[in-house]
Amino acid sequence: MTSARTRTTTRLRPRTLLIGLLVLVTVMLLALLIGAGDLGWRRVLAEIVAQLSGGTSPLSAREAAIVWEIRLPRVVLAGLVGAALASSGAAFQGVFRNPLADPYLLGAAAGAGMAATMVVVLAPAVSGWVVGPLQLAAFAGALGGVGLSWVLGRSSGGTGTATLLLAGVAVASFLTAVQTFVQQLNTETIRQVYTWTLGGLNISSWHEVWLALPYIAASAVVLCLCARLLDVLTLGDAEASSLGVRPGRVRLLLLVAASLATAAAVSVSGLIGFVGIVVPHLVRMLAGASYRVIIPMSLIGGAAFLVVADHVARTIMPGELPLGVVTAFAGAPFFVLVLRTAQVRSL
User: Fold this and answer.
1) What residue stretch is flagged as signal peptide (predicted)?
2) Does 171 map to a domain?
3) What is the total count of domains within the chain?
4) Residues 237-248: what's their mean pLDDT?
5) pTM
6) In sequence order, what are the residues at sequence separation of 6 or more whose Cβ sits closer than 8 angstroms to the Cβ of residue 94?
7) Does any domain span residue 22?
8) Which residues have CB under 8 Å from 46's CB, separation 6+?
């Protein structure tokens, strides 16, 4: 009985994958059909069918542009950002063997926030770049924060994940202090920085999709390929080494891939919390504890989760609600539940 159960929980079953994909396609379609602009879901559905079959569209050129140039890129970008944050959160939980780890653990959020604040303060009117200075700064800042944590952790003489974790806490605190100091010197920029910090996809286009897609796709491939090695690491470094796995190199590869995906997500969406904690835990409860299941299903589940959250953010009230607020409303109660029921232990 034990071996049979192990087989069912350590491999991604086709039925589980199919159900996840169907859920994702369904929520993406619903988000495309229903929006703040009252186009009528039947007319939008007829437009989609017309585009696929070459038929006559029931929408005007302006209405069709709303569907294909505003709604669709936003839905796709929400899926990409959700997939990046959820899979990165799962990888961080596996690397640190801590169920409360998230993609921002090593200073990605603090680095992105500080860099974005610097751009808002020092170059508020810069335009005409292929990549916006705010996006570029957030991407570089996120990677810089993680890189600084890694260097600090290694230079302190420690080799374990606990040392790296402490370095991440120190770096995040320092970068947040710098950001706060700069904001206090330029109080007129607080509102703009605050809006970015809450996260959102209200300025989404195909340009942002193509900017984030290569990094998130490459990271997703690496994380999926390393999922089996992540399972081996849960046995302990000694056991993993005896099986021919080099724990240090595997952790470094996973952290680089997860941090790259997180940086790409943050650069186009701002800081969106709880996705990297909620989704991997839900996948673990519903589909199994193996990272060969958790990583790919977190990609799908994270995409579906954020598409739904973004749809709520843009339709629940006349003025758009920050996306980070919606994910906090959904994630905070779940996070409290995790704190009450889960001990921080090896997964």
Assistant:
1) none
2) yes
3) 1
4) 82
5) 0.90
6) 230, 233, 234, 254, 291, 294, 347
7) no
8) 57, 58
